[in-house]
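Q: Here's a chain of 424 amino acids. Please give me its 3D structure as tokens.
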Amino acid sequence: MAKEIKVAAYEEGKIHTLVANNSGNEAVLALPLNRLVVKVLKVPADVDPVEFATPILKAASPYPDDDLAVGIEVMREDEKSKVVIAAALPESSADDIGEALDEAKLSVVKIDALILGELRFLWPKIFINGADTARRLLVVQGIESYTLIVLDGDQIVSLRCIDIRSTLRREIILALIEAEDFAGGRTLGEVLLLKSPQPFDGHEELCTELRSFAELREVVRDDEEAALRGVADRALEEGTLDALPESWRDVLNETRFKIKFTRWMSLFVGILFLLVGVLFGVPIFYDLRTSSEKDKCRRHRPQYQEVKEMMAKVDLVTKYSDHSTGALAVMKAVSDRLPSSGVTIERYVYKFDDSLTISAVADSSKHVYDYHDALEEIMIEAEDGEERLFKVVSLKNLKSRSAKTSEQSFTIECKFHKDEEVEE
């Protein structure tokens, strides 16, 4: 997850990034402690930490007229109080940082302390014999400053940054007094010096000075990116320090709005051009397509006419070769459906491929209807199975031949199925 966070540190007037190949322009900015106003405070449980810390940091700031946006990180708390790290970046001292960020084309979303990220990877080197509650002084050597951290076990009880030209002994005594006022008196068990692998002038004098307070142990900073990776891990956690000034936050929101607005406008313009292209392009495309198809139809028309005439001839031959609806077959079929008695056919009128008209007499109307129903049920073989011989069987002119008898005369018109002609 940390690799997905772009982290930048401002040191020695330059911007260093952890993930330089990240295509985004938003980053978490890690600053050395000498660029921030930082205090470790104990805040009553019923008091807002920001309101409590703001006047204290403002009094400690070299720019007391600046409005400070105070970031708070709670280290521990109980029912009565909270122990917090409070930090703020005075805007009057951040012009060079802003210029470096503009040159690197970065927008800052959060400001953290670089040393807090580095502490993530120092704990194994501090507690080489396992965790304990001893008081230690951690001295972090920088290019322009020293960072002094007093630890009770893994808890920070004093946090100071001093200029490298300051009187180190005096500042260490002040840090230890501050820790004693904050967390009570304890014997200093160990002094740790976090240094770079490269030798530097005054190293022996520094070590001699530190040994006068307690046993000295030197810790080499063997991974230059450890602090940035620690800040990246902290950026993914809720409640970690954020000292981003309000004016920077306003610029960030404005930049994000401009980016979103530009994206939406680009999308809108793209959709607009697409719609215009569809509106004017589709009719033109279909006109061209229609013209092309018409040309093809004109070229293929002679072959089409030839095939059509050939199919008509084939249909005609097939029709006259099919005797299933021929006169003899049809008359045989309707004669076979005559009842054994009661119906006498007087006349057939056969029209090829059109109809068959039967004129007959019957002993009663029941014989007439039975014969009519029998004609409707005549089936013949077809291409897809069987089908009725006649499409429509109509009973007509049913009337009595004599008032003295029940004899009936009638006409039945049977229409054949006709093949539907395909329109050109």
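Q: Can you summarize the key feature?
A: Residues 246-321 form the longest helix (76 residues).
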